[in-house]
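Two proteins, back to back. First:
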Amino acid sequence: MRINSISTPMVNRQQNKYSSPNFKGQQFPSGYYEDDEIELAKRFINQTGDEWRKMYKDEKGDKYGDLYMESHGLNWLLAPLGKLCNLDSENYIDNKEGAEFMRILLDACTLGLWELANSPISATEAYIRKARQNGKIDAKTARVATLICDMKRAKEEEFQETQLNKLKKIMNKQERELEQYKNLDKLQKGFINCIEDERQGIDTVIPNAIMIEGSNKEQGEQFVDFARKQSGVYFATVNEDKTAKMQKDFYDALKNAKEKFDETGNRTLIEVKGMDKLVSKDTEFKVTEWMKAVLTRCAEKYKATVIFQTPDSSNFVAEINEPHRVGVNLKTN
């Protein structure tokens, strides 16, 4: 196999001692590199083995290695590597390091240019340092080789970060789905199963209220719809309005629920929209006191369960959230 030193031309950075030096370039983890070094490293990285594979269809046998060297210009790294792994060479090393070098060499000659860098970056960097110390490659070649390692590491980190972000999105989606399942399970056990038990004559406790807390209104509506359909109870809605009007409509819904139960034995689920107006700390005291009394006995006295959404219950009158009033708590995400 014919192996030459690096033949790719580089910009001559020697300058007249009276001229100003060129400081254009970029900082990398291993040091500062000038534009011509960066462009050369990019050229090596961006090559692939596709063109070489096409050539190999016409040029078989021993010419494979020569064509690879001619077309990809990796002599600067493969030449000393080949000498170290050559059984006839006085530099031959029979140890794990030599075996690793041989693997890298074979990968490079059979897979294409940048597959060379599929070897661990740390192993490549260690080789570059050793080759430089032993005079196998010159300082310029060692710098570009080290820069390529920097670029490869950056690409790997970028890829890993992309994959990590994808994984996080998948995990977040799964967590949201799991939370929704837990909410539906709470609704099933805390309300729907209780309704069914009552119909079968089994002693049970029907919750006075179901609170859905969070900013996801669409998901909240899904919970309301699930409770309504799965329980098979009557359904009524109190729309958001002025406090006095809402209080009156709510009371009328409670009376209707009692009448329907007396006639059919079936309970009612009452959705109260804008519940905050009736139970917040800013609400008139007599209204909140009335609501506390209603939510203590609506399941028993009126045969109704209240269901409502709120973005945040922290501004509610504290007693409203007590378990004997709000028996089922759901969270949207």
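And the second protein:
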Amino acid sequence: MTFYRRHLPHWQPDGKYLFITWRLEGSLPREQTPAHISTGRAFAWFDGKLDEARSGPTWMKRQDIAQIVADSIRYAANELSYCELAAYVVMPNHVHMLALPMIAAGKLLDSIKAYSARQANLILGRTGEPFWAHESYDHWVRNRGEFERIRGYIERNPVRAGIVANPQDYPWSSAAP
């Protein structure tokens, strides 16, 4: 099992699916997570603020950039065999992914983030500025029921955020045909 800490603790056992969320740099409001709440409630607060997308960049509203990110995720899984991909969604300012890493989870995420950031920044004409926030959220999946709940949560995210009526209608998701 790998463990490290930045702002958040990261427990990443070998051979377990991980629910990973990462976001654009500057996409969260400056207000702090409410004090004295559990990690799960903190994640719900964090994800709710991202779904509102009331502050910060929303570059992945652009089809070309959302496509780069989605393609990067699928490439890491299908071509590089860095993970077994169970679900993903590319939202306007963040990404959720459910995957079984076949390499160190940090290397998997770094690969996806580095390539997609480079390509997106070229399109946006940005240099010298971070695209993705350094910190990410990850949670290891403990059982099949949790796996199914997380997969549903990921694929229904665009519906909860009011972007589409049906998960299958969102093109940058594993729910899309």
